[in-house]
Design goal:
Length: 215
């Protein structure tokens, strides 16, 4: 696959749209300008990669809408060198955006085929992201604490294991709800205290427990 002037032009337009829709963090806009989203979709959908829409990536999953990626990344307020855990690798696009912002990214996917594809794709494109085939509900205790945690599937409730893997002053962004989700931004104040700020309504594919084989 190539990243042509046409793709770059479409990407510029998309980033301008995101700016108009309220994304003001320059670092987020720059990372989304830099990461070629069409590399994360099947070649047949090349032309759709720069529409502000979610898109199927197979296995009943979707790559999140660009606005959602931008919105969550902005809320996460990630700084270079921070250790970031993403739950729900999917296509790997969100992980690539975080890596592009200088984060040390760990990402978990519960569907083996998606995990394999995303891992191979991220490696081929040169993004340094550590991919894991696991149940994201449990996080990655051996690498905790994380300064940032981003959950990219809709959770029914706040997963306790993930809260406990947050560093003090760390931030978790997670959509919580059944049919639609409210975006939560949880900050860990101390070992036992958390501050929860809620914004915006979204529709995510559900966060599922266990590994795919155990459904
Ligand atoms: N961040 C992705 C989009 C994610 S869609 C991207 O940039 O393309 C949500 C993903 O979460 C799906 O791939 C789904 O398989 C995964 N998922 C759902 N429940 C999970 C769990 N318990 N652990 C890990 N991944 C999970």
């Amino acid at each position: 696959m190539k990243d042509t002037y046409l793709h770059k032009g479409l990407r510029r337009k998309l980033v301008d749209q995101l700016h108009h829709k309220g994304i003001h963090d320059e670092r987020v806009l720059k990372a989304m300008m830099d990461v070629p989203r069409h590399f994360f979709l099947d070649a047949a959908f090349d032309r759709w990669a720069y529409e502000d829409k979610a898109f199927p990536i197979g296995h009943e999953q979707t790559i999140s809408q660009p606005f959602t990626v931008a919105y969550m990344t902005q809320l996460l307020d990630v700084q270079p060198r921070q250790k970031v855990l993403e739950v729900g690798t999917g296509s790997g696009y969100q992980a690539a955006v975080l890596a592009r912002m200088g984060a040390r990214v760990f990402t978990i996917e519960r569907q083996e085929a998606l995990y394999r594809e995303a891992k191979a794709r991220l490696e081929a494109l040169g993004y340094r992201v550590r991919c894991f085939y696991r149940d994201g509900y449990k996080g990655l205790p051996e690498f905790a604490p994380f300064e940032r945690i981003l959950v990219t599937a809709g959770a029914r409730e706040m997963p306790e294991a993930l809260k406990q893997q947050l560093a003090i002053r760390g931030v978790m962004v997670i959509p919580v709800g059944e049919t639609s989700q409210a975006m939560h931004r949880l900050t860990r104040i101390s070992k036992t205290e958390f501050e929860d700020e809620i914004s915006g309504r979204f529709k995510f594919v559900p966060f599922l427990g266990g590994l795919e084989a155990s459904d």
